[in-house]
Amino acid sequence: MQSSLNNAGLFLINTLFDLYLLILMVRIILAWAHADYYNPFTQIIIKLTKPVIDPLRKIIPNYAGIEFATLATIFIIEIIKFSLIGIITIGMPKHILGLVVLAGADIIKLLLNTFFYAILLQAILSWIQPGYSPTARILAQLTSPIMRPIQRIMPPISGFDLSPIPAMIILQLLIILLIGPLQAMGTQIAFG
User: Residue 187 and residue 191: Cα distance in Å, rounded?
Assistant: First the structure.
């Protein structure tokens, strides 16, 4: 019975925290990519994050197109998430530095996964609904920091844009090579 409760608690913590963290990460990427502020998708993201971010923006300003208030919020939520997960599974964290490493690794993973799934969704949408749509436009703006450099190297061939394939492979390789070791190190420091 206790194991089922622990699993349910872990599921809820991961799901609820990760959903809101994803929304916050999308907000950072949209701001960084200078996405259309009036797009309905952008407006939903802003409305979902405004109550948390606006008070912090008075203290932590944006710089170079990066919303540092949103980034700080993500970092704090990540530390809370890993603290709760640790308490349920292992026990109280021993060192805050380990939680900082875990939070940093998860932020990088979240960023890379956000780009990965946005590129995948954009590719699928281009097959289903070619042409202009508000969703396609916002996905293009969201993925442009990753796709633009790859598309310069690999232009469309006979009208087919194959650049999403190497982009997604590179993103997954980065997750495998960076995140696993960082998470192991953070877990060892925090709970070892």
Answer: 6
Token pair in block for residue 131: 């042409």
Burial profile 152-182: b = 16 or more Cβ within 10 angstroms, e = fewer: eeeeeeeeebebbeebbeebeebbeeebeeb
Distance of CA 131 to CAs 73, 115, 117, 135, 180, Å? 36, 21, 20, 11, 39
Residue pLDDT, tens place only, 25-62: 999 998 888 888 888 888 999 999 999 999 999 899 88
- Contacts of residue 140, defined as CB under 8 A and 6 or more positions apart, other chains included, come to 122, 147
Segment 112-141, tens digit of pLDDT: 999 999 999 988 888 787 777 777 888 888
Query: CA–CA separation, 66 vs 33, rounded Å?
Result: 9
Sketch the domain layout of the chain as residue ranges. 2-191
157 forms beta bridges with 160
